[in-house]
Amino acid sequence: MADLLDREVAQRYASWFRALADPSRVQIVAYLARQARPMAVGEIVAAVGLAQSTVSQHLKILAEVRFVLAEPVGNARHYRINDNCITCFPSAADVVMGKPAPAVAEVCS
Amino acid sequence: MADLLDREVAQRYASWFRALADPSRVQIVAYLARQARPMAVGEIVAAVGLAQSTVSQHLKILAEVRFVLAEPVGNARHYRINDNCITCFPSAADVVMGKPAPAVAEVCS
DNA sequence: GACTTCCATCGCCGATCGGCGATTAACGAT
DNA sequence: ATCGTTAATCGCCGATCGGCGATGGAAGTC
After folding, report:
1. What distance in Å separates the CA atoms of residue A54 and residue A42, rounded to the nearest whole number?
2. From CA A57, how far away is CA A69, in angstroms rounded?
3. Amino acid B107: pLDDT
4. How far apart are CA B25 and CA A21, in angstroms?
5. Residue nearest to nucleotide C27 (CA to C1')
6. Strand pairing partners for B72?
7. Taking the C1' atom of D27, which residue's CA lies nearest?
8. N or C end of chain A, less CB within 10 A?
9. A57-103: per-residue pLDDT in tens?
10. DSSP letter string over chain A?
11. For the purposes of burial, counting CB atoms within 10 Å of the CB of A37, is it exposed (0-12), middle (13-18) or buried (19 or more)?
């Protein structure tokens, strides 16, 4: 029981993985990660081909774990990838798979 | 729409993330990844402190995506981490976060 | 054979999920 | 003030999840 991953850490990582537990959300995050500029919701809707309300709900889930960040632009809202997650999320995957924690970065703010 | 991640790839990755979308399963995988030898179900039950049926169900989910492998040993069943996942799962996290696919390893058999 | 041990499976429960259409709210333009 | 436009929220649905106790089956022990 000594080398059992701390429950709070496990819970945080699980919340990250749960945010990507849906193929549409995986596509949205990967899509935003590949864009140079922040994208409006309508553009994401066009890209993934789901209803606007559905995409909005997915974006809310992704924003709650701060995988994506939003900024209001006039009438619209632009979403972009959170650069901190680009490094800290894969490192979480490393930790789960047994590699020693790579220094800091545990919390991607 | 061009740089939208392929749906099938997104689905496979989502199934991996969904397998770790629960803190108990994160603990189980991390636990097995840190063990030198395969562990019996009873040992895992003792480590995580859940009912035996619950742990067995979690192990089934983890085995379905081949994060863990099982081998019968006499009366018992020993579970161990799938070494292929140690590299291929974090690389999936990299792909989602926009890093170019690191060569092969896409499928951790 | 009878008995124990180990684990998978079943059935049940409340809770959460993923999808959608409809509505509401905020903003820009006229 | 009245329109469009954009996006968040609401309410509903069926489906899945996570937990448990109980049952069942396979392998070891006596």
Report:
1. 12
2. 14
3. 62
4. 14
5. A75
6. B77
7. B75
8. C
9. 999 999 999 999 999 999 999 999 999 999 999 999 999 999 986 65
10. -TTSPPHHHHHHHHHHHHHT-SHHHHHHHHHHHT-SS-EEHHHHHHHHT--HHHHHHHHHHHHHTTSEEEEEETTEEEEEE-HHHHHHHHHHHHHHTTPPP-SS--S--
11. exposed
Alpha helices in B20-108 (DSSP H): 23-33, 41-48, 52-64, 83-96
d(CA B59, CA B82): 13
**Domains of chain B in sequence order:** 7-108 (1.10.10.10)
The three-class DSSP label of residue B83 is helix
What are the two backbone dihedrals, phi and then psi, of residue A103, each rounded to the nearest 5 degrees?
Answer: 60, -120
Q: Is A11 touching B (CB cutoff 8 A)?
A: yes
pLDDT at B108: 65
User: Tokens for A34?
Assistant: 């590949």
Q: Distance between CA atoms of A92 and B38, rounded to whole angstroms?
A: 23
